[in-house]
Amino acid sequence: MNKRNTARFAFALTLLTCAIGSVRAQKSDHIYDFLELSPSAHATALGGTQVAMGGYEVSQLFQNPSAMADTTHNNLALNITPYVEGIKYGTAAYCWHLENIGNVGGGFQFISYGDFDRTDENGTELGTFTASEYAIYLTLSKQLTPQLTMGATLKPVFSKFDNYDSFGLMMDFGVTYRSVNKRFVAGAAIKNLGSQITEYEEKHEKLPTDVKVGLSYKAEHAPFRISLTLKDLTEWDLSTDDDNKISFGDNLMRHTIFGVEMLPFRNFYVGVGYNHRIRKEMVASDKKGATGFSWGFGLKIYKFHIAYGSARHHIAGSCNSISLSTNLSSFL
User: Fold this and answer.
1) Angle at 205 between CA 199 and CA 209, to 5 degrees
2) End-to-end alpha-carbon separation of the chain, Å?
3) Which runs of consecutive H residues, i.e. helices, occur in the chain?
4) Which site among 11, 149, 198, 305 is 20 to 30 Å from 262 CA-CA?
5) What is the C-alpha separation between 247 and 161, in angstroms, rounded?
6) What is the number of domains present in the chain?
7) Phi and psi at residue 15, in whole multiples of 5°?
8) The domain containing residue 96 runs over which residues?
9) Which CATH number fits the domain that encloses residue 250?
10) Cα dist from 59 to 39, 90, 198, 208, whole Å
11) What is the mean pLDDT of the chain?
12) What is the pLDDT of residues 235-278, one digit of tens each?
């Protein structure tokens, strides 16, 4: 790989890692970090991570397997997120309700880093190679009571960088509580429990295991919903090598994501989010801008829900997501 492609690849990986508020490379050797990228434009608009979203969206199975419910039966959701230099990330999810069993969902998550030139130490071109990662989600959720739902996901993960391959097998577990009036939602998820089955170079690496807890509440007589998400709960100290010492409050805030949705109409929303960890780790000292903030909107047109989300991860650019979802039963 020549210098130009090496720099491009390094920048892309850095941006992707920071996009999920991790920068884990500074603290440990986790792999498969792409699993923590936002699965939908709606989640992107609200800060990237949501385990207690107010509405019912099948794409939530990527973040909390218990989020599927009877109302997501026969729902299909697609999401695409173009990144820098031809890198593409996307998800697809589907749910089916089975009587006396629960809600069965399937999901596909991928990231393609594009094509790269292969060269020797003298710069002689030796062809090209590709790099990509993807995961398959097999999810089952069960409504235990009218308010309480539990779910689990089996998740094989595949990663390929040139001639180096890795395979991992993981599971997610989640629980969701919705109040009788649906205005209050609480959710919790344990993500990426499992093991790396095959290694890149006979070096066993850690998985991005995490615990997330979230709350959301819609005021009774006001058209907005607020959300609070706590993530990276398996590790308290989120300071980086560039931090001398961070305060208790700063460290706590790095675990926190805030979101607000304005809901002026039934089939339309505008959302904004704030991720403090991204802002602290990625903001430029001379030009802070909107790093760490996100926004987006969604609306229903005919039988389709269309959403757009944009997150400012760095002064160099934003991450933009487009999602499309529909209930296939509406076409029958």
Assistant:
1) 125
2) 51
3) 3-19, 41-45, 248-253, 276-282
4) 149
5) 38
6) 1
7) -65, -40
8) 3-331
9) 2.40.160.40
10) 7, 11, 28, 20
11) 87
12) 988 888 777 788 999 999 999 999 999 999 889 999 999 999 98
